[in-house]
Amino acid sequence: MRYLDRPANPYVERETAGLPPGTALDAGCGAGAEAALLASLGWTVTGVDISPEAIVAAQRASSAVEWIEADLTTWHPARQFDLVTTHYAHASIPHLDLYDRLAGWVAPGGSLLIVGHADDGHHEASVRLDDVVARLAGWRIDTAIETVRGSLYDVVVRASKVEP
C-alpha cells in the first residue's frame, strides 16, 4: 500500500503476519501508510500523530482508521490495544521513554512493534537495539534485529506482553 509515494514500512506486514487481527494503535502515524495497511489486513486501527498536516494526509489514506491529532508524550488512550506500533517516531522525550509509554498501552497478550533508526551517529532520533530490548524485561522478545533497508539502518523489535 502506498500513500504520497511512500509505501508502508515492510516490517509491519512481516511482523504482524502471524498475529490475529484485533485492535491496533499506530503511534506517530504520519501520513498513515502503516495504519492503512493494518486496516486493510483486518485490524481495527487508531492512528495518532502530533502533526495536523499528517492527520489530514492520513485521512486521505484510509477512512477505515480512527485518526487522532495528539502529542504522544501527553495523550492517554481510553483503552489498551492488541498491537501498538511505532515507526521512526520523533518525540519531544527520549525514545526509550516514549517506548515505555507505548508499552503501557499494550493489552496483556498483545504485541509492541518498534521500528526505529539504529544509532549510527547520523540520526537525531536513534536508538540502540540492546537498550530497547532491556526496557522490555518480562516481555517475550519475538524479534530483535538491526538491519539495513536501502539507506536506512533500522532497529526492529517486536515483543509480546506476557499475560499475568
What is the mean pLDDT? Answer: 91
Number of helices: 5
CATH-derived architecture: 3-Layer(aba) Sandwich
Looking at how many chains there are and whether they match, the oligomeric state comes to: single chain
Describe the structure.
- The protein has 164 residues and is of the alpha/beta class.
- The protein has a single domain (23-160), classed as 3-Layer(aba) Sandwich (Rossmann fold), CATH 3.40.50.
- The protein has helices spanning 10-16, 33-40, 52-61, 95-103, 129-135; strands at 2-3, 6-7, 23-27, 44-49, 66-69, 81-87, 106-118, 126-127, 140-149, 152-160.
- The strands form two sheets. Strands 3, 4, 5, 6, 7, 8, 9 and 10 form an eight-stranded mixed β-sheet that branches. Strands 1-2 form a two-stranded antiparallel ribbon.
- Strand 9 and strand 10 (152-160) form a beta hairpin.
- The radius of gyration is 14 Å and the shape is globular.
- The termini are far apart.
Secondary-structure blueprint of this entry?
Layout: E1 2-3, E2 6-7, H1 10-16, E3 23-27, H2 33-40, E4 44-49, H3 52-61, E5 66-69, E6 81-87, H4 95-103, E7 106-118, E8 126-127, H5 129-135, E9 140-149, E10 152-160
Parallel strand pairs: 3-4, 3-6, 4-5, 6-7, 7-8
Antiparallel strand pairs: 1-2, 7-10, 9-10
List key phrases describing it.
Rossmann fold; alpha/beta; 164 residues; 5 helices; two-stranded antiparallel sheet; eight-stranded mixed sheet
Describe what is shown at a glance:
With 164 residues, the chain is α/β, with parallel strands linked by helices.
